[in-house]
Amino acid sequence: MLRREADRRGIALTDEVIDYLLTRYARDLKHLMTLLDGLDEFSMASKRAVTVPLLRQMLADQGAIA
Fold first, then answer.
1. What is the Cα–Cα distance from 25 to 7, expressed in whole angstroms?
2. Which of 11, 18, 41, 62 has its CA 20 to 30 A from that of 5?
3. Across the 66 residues of the chain, what is the mean pLDDT of every consecutive 10-residue run?
4. DSSP state, 25?
5. How many domains are contained in the chain?
6. Which distant-in-sequence residues (6+ apart) come within 8 Å of 54 by Cβ?
7. What is the DSSP letter of 44?
């Protein structure tokens, strides 16, 4: 579901990013979609591709260090 939603939005999620999310955060759909929303916005604002380092930076900036 996460990959389908990312594809629908035009976000290229690598297996590494998905694995990182699924192994470190709650697997409920609402929580994952909230993370995807934030990651999409952060990626566009920073003009960088979605990667694990970008995800970690976003979470650190939000105070949710993983």
1. 21
2. 62
3. 91 93 89 92 94 94 66
4. S
5. 1
6. 39, 42, 43, 46, 48
7. H
- Residue pair 53/66 in contact (Cβ under 8 Å)? The answer is no
User: Which position has the token pair 């976000």?
Assistant: 11
pLDDT in tens, 9-22: 999 999 999 999 99
The answer to whether residue 15 is domain-embedded is yes
Residue 24 lies in a domain: yes
- 41, 36, 43, 45 alpha-carbon torsion, rounded to 10°: 10
**In terms of residues, how long is the chain?**
66
The answer as to whether 66 is a domain residue is no
Residue 27: count other Cβ atoms within 10 Å of its Cβ. 10
Identity at 28, one-letter amino acid code: D
Taking the model in full, what pTM does it have? 0.81
d(CA 61, CA 63): 5
